Amino acid sequence: MKTARTAETKGTAETAGDRPKDEIYYTQIVVITAMIVFATGFLAAARILVPVAGTAAWISALIGGVIGLGIVVLAGYLAARFPDHSLVRMAERIFGAPLGKLIGLTFAAYCTVVLGLGSRESVLAIWIAFLQTTPPIIISGVFYALIIYAAYLGIEAIARVSLIFFTLVVISLLVLTALAVPVVVPGRLLPVVGNGLRPLIHGGFLAASYAGESVVVLAFIRHLKDKRSASRAMATGVAAGMVVMATATGFGVMMLGVRGISRVTFPVLETARMVGFGQFLERAEILFLALWFSAALLKLAAVFYASITSVADVLGLRDYRPLIIPYALLGTALSLIPKTVLETFDYLSMFVKYSVWYAIALPVVLLVGAVVRGSRRGGENVRGKDAR
Amino acid sequence: MRFLRRLARGGMRRPRMMLGRPLLPLEEVADGIGTAGPEGEDAGTPRDSDAALPEPPIPDTLEGVERRLRDLMGEGSPDVIIRRLIIWTNPEIEGLLFYIEGLASRDVVNLIALRSVMLAERVPTLDASALGRDNIASVFMTHIVPSGQISVLSCIDKVVEHVLTGEAALFIEGARQCVVFEAKGWEHRGIEEPHTEKVVRGPREGFSELLRANTALVRRRLRTPDLRMDSTKVGRRSKTDIVIAYIDGLANPRLVATIRERIDHIDTDILPDSGLLEEFIEDYPYSPFPQIQYTERPDRFCAGLSEGLVGIIVDGSPMALMAPGNLASFFQSPEDYYERFPYGGPLRALRFIAGVIALTFPALYVAISLFHQEMLPTKLALAIAGSHMPVPFPVLVEALLMEVALELIRESSVRLPDPVGQTMGFVGALLLGDAAVSAGLVSPIMVIVVAVTGLASFAIPHYPTGLAIRLLRFPLLFLSAWLGLYGLMAGLMAIALHLGALSSFGVPYLEPLMKPRPSLRDVVWRSPVFTFNKRPEYPEPLDEVRQKKFIRTWEPGVAEMARRESQGGDEDGKDGGDQGDGGDRGR
After folding, report:
1. Is B519 on the interface with A (CB under 8 A)?
2. Rounded-to-integer distance, Cα A188 and Cα A190, Å
3. So what's the pLDDT on residue A4?
4. Which residue, A161, A201, A167, A205, is CA-closest to A70?
5. ∠ at Cα B553 (B551, B554), nearest 5°?
6. Contacts of B506 in chain A (CB under 8 A)
7. Residue A376 covered by a domain
8. What torsion do the CA atoms of B365, B368, B373, B375 make, to the nearest 10 degrees?
9. Mutate which of B493, B504, B514, B540 to disrupt the A interface (most A C-beta within 10 Å)?
10. Which of A284, A221, A254 has the alpha carbon at shortest distance from A86?
11. Nearest residue to B16 (alpha-carbon basis) of B95, B129, B134
12. Chain A contact for B483, CB < 8 A?
């Protein structure tokens, strides 16, 4: 008996990574979801969205947010239906062990790709902005050391720290927005629909892939204290995250213009570089980036945690911790696959193009499966009865 | 083997019990007829009386008692007083007074014990011959020895234990039991102003080393009968008294039980201070961050208890512990509450900022001057570069030099007597800083950075938290010299994650910061006291309501709100009445 609280919380010890004391509050889920949505993507989202949607990239981001809301509402429904299950256990419950494990593996693979690309992107941003002379492998190493530590400590620690740093990040973004107001040229947002309606929708689907990353939360949503609020928490998180995305994209366009954005690697970084902090801090973008780095790190730690607990579930391990080091090596290797900055962005745009469909398909398939199975098997799970 | 010994022991006891059954006349007992033999053996038994053995009884003759006591306490200790006396009962009996000089008050022993037993008028009228071996001690307790805290004991080891806490024991010839009465009266430090937690406004009383005085200080402030002070002992040799204080019906019983359980598990030799106890019972002993609050102030202790915390007072330590602790609690000072809230709030926020400065400022300076010069305005950057020109070391070495010097000054001035220590601190810092700059060893800006850091770390009210921050400053310094702001941020993230995983008695270390409203009300900020309607949630108190929701009801607006609230709570359909009241208020 380690804690005084143990007696109160009951944990299902069958799933990997489950310490009885792990519990996450509503706000923490909101924050983690928001971070998963924007923390790595918003640095370069404009560079991916603007070539498609033009000046209306920010509207695309909002459309993406709406699609994302649809995804997380489904995901939240799933979470409420299986309140004590991780995603892999849900899938196994619905489709039986072999197929469920396969779905679990695809989920782990999805998380891994998010992890690899996200870490590559963040490391790249740090490399470009901070430490051009330092070999990226060192930056990456420190990054993964922190992720390993975070994953070792568990999702609860990640959730708590997320809340603190999210507050700081939001403050930093508000400050940045306020400081940017004198520099923006609202006229650059015209025409409102950008390259037309079709590109706008297309951009929306691209942006939805960022929002869709929030399905990762399904891996640990069962730690949420009040399961019925899962849907609302994730939806709030996605909405917050996509508002940040849209603002970042919109301000990027207003400050750099469509053509300017296509010339820079990380538009948000450039916009931060353009604002001044009175006469005191001339180029505060490094401070901002330092804060954003923390957000990216926490996001990737959560994703890392999601993927290793999923793999552990698939393998039927009780504790996910033995997987940490091998998986971290895999993540590092994956993040080194794109050789150049350009290649990184190629991979990124490819991921953005296709991953959204996985994010939509996963909850849909699981839900449909649950409804069909639930009605066939009757009262095997508690919520199955309601579905009939 | 042990079983055999116990059998032998039991066999030895049995005849004595048989013998004791009829009431023997006292004279006979005094002669030691029939009992001297086994007693002699009993007194001679080796001291390794195991826990499995039955409690060693009191020898029947005073010679036996004395021999036994000398055997237990050793021959050479001059402070062990074993005094034979005659009690003027009718017929008179011999007695033996046993106490430790210095622990037991001379006055109490002389006046109460000796006088009442040897000189009192009533004693000669007592017919000792009518009393049996079993009840003579109780008669003495109830009739003769005038003491408030008095008891009869029949086990000699227990008697010695009591005497070693400052009580005095009166053995009576032939009695099966011994009268043990309160006589504590050792020299101790009085109640003084707390040295570590000074306040400008607020009570000046501090705990002292005396457990009873400390519990009295707490009782005096919390007169509720629900205040519980569970007592236990720790230390095989020191047998230190420990009091677990909490308010029944408020503190979470699970928390109390956990603390009790952990204290009961301690099996150590001596416990000189509550600091050791802290290390024995905390959740994460390897973390640099303290997880249990300590205080020297009874007012703060009582405030903690009234929030549902559990207090631990260790005899001999003026530092009382309070559990659970969390990060925010270490940044709070009782003065936040004693001063009016317009000052309390900003001051507390300032302390948090001071914590951040103390942790990061030198590292930030190193990172910026080594990696991110472009962040600074040109003039400042030039000034920094210019001041660093004559310095032969890299910035990191410079920072380390100054930091180590600062820590040295601080450490040396802490151990010195107060006036010297302060002078030492000033002179050391001023002279050393100035000399280092003029010698060209460090740049003036570095001196400023280190000085600000030092000041900031003094602003943290809880000393161990300050120590943790001082300790963590050095790895951050190295990280930022290696990777600039990225390294600094990585270090901060690692610290933050560590904090996120910490817990104190099951309560997350960052808990109050996790809930936006309470944290703004009384964690990072302090709102007016009349808004603290609920206790903090982190100790999970049984009763969350601290005070009435509306207290300042003499204010028309507040009275109105209170009325509306109570009506809204009772029945919802009374909107019309509310409107009317609102109209009244408007007039």
Report:
1. no
2. 5
3. 38
4. A205
5. 125
6. 2-6, 21
7. no
8. -100
9. B493
10. A221
11. B134
12. yes
Say whether pLDDT at A150 is over 90: yes
Closest-CA residue to A29 (of A251, A205, A272, A216)? A216
Query: Are B255 and A4 a contacting pair at CB < 8 A?
Result: yes
Q: Do residues B167 and B150 lie in contact, with contact meaning Cβ atoms separated by under 8 Å?
A: no
Residues of B in contact with A159 (CB under 8 A): 500
> Number of residue pairs across A and B with CB atoms under 8 Å?
122
Binary contact (A283, B374; C-beta < 8 A):
yes
Show residues of chain A in contact with B373, CB under 8 Å.
Answer: none
* A227 domain-assigned: yes
Residue B77 · residue B67 · CB < 8 Å: no
Confirm whether A289 is domain-assigned: yes
Give the domain CATH number at A155. Answer: 1.20.1740.10
Concatenate the DSSP letters of all residues of B276-307 into one string.
Answer: HHHHHH-S-TTSSS--SEEES-HHHHHHHHTT
Contacts A281 to B, Cβ<8 Å: 375-377
ipTM of this complex: 0.88
CB-count burial class (<10 Å; 0-12, 13-18, 19+) for B196: middle
Please check whether residue A1 lies inside any domain of the structure: no
Q: Which of A28, A93, A136, A24 is nearest to A374 (CA)?
A: A93
CB contact under 8 A, A1 and B258: yes
Q: Identify the bridge partners of residue B151 per DSSP, sorted by sequence position.
A: B180
Domain count, chain A: 1
CA distance A374 to chain B (A): 38
Higher-confidence residue: A206 or A189? A206
Note whether B377 contacts A: Cβ–Cβ < 8 A. Answer: yes
Of B489, B513, B540, the CB nearest to A294: B489
* A81: containing domain: 19-360
Do residues B227 and B247 touch, judged by C-beta distance below 8 A?
A: yes
A16: DSSP letter: T
Kindly report, residue by residue over B428-442, the tens digit of the pLDDT. Answer: 777 888 888 888 888
Of A21, A143, A164, the CB nearest to B513: A164
Contact B99, B183 (CB under 8 A): yes
B375 touches chain A (CB under 8 A): yes
Residue with tokens 């619905």: A94
**For residue B314, what are the β-bridge partners?**
B242
What tokens were used for A324?
Answer: 């940490």
Cβ atoms of B83 and B147 within 8 Å: the answer is no
Q: Measured between CA atoms, how close is B499 to chain A, in angstroms?
A: 8
Cα separation, B449 vs B358, in Å, equals: 10
**Is B517 an interface residue toward A (CB < 8 Å)?**
no
* Lowest-pLDDT choice from A189-193, B325-329, B468-472: A189-193
What pLDDT does A135 receive? 85
Smallest CA-to-CA distance from A86 within A48, B287, A94 is with A94
Give the residue-averaged pLDDT of B228-237: 91
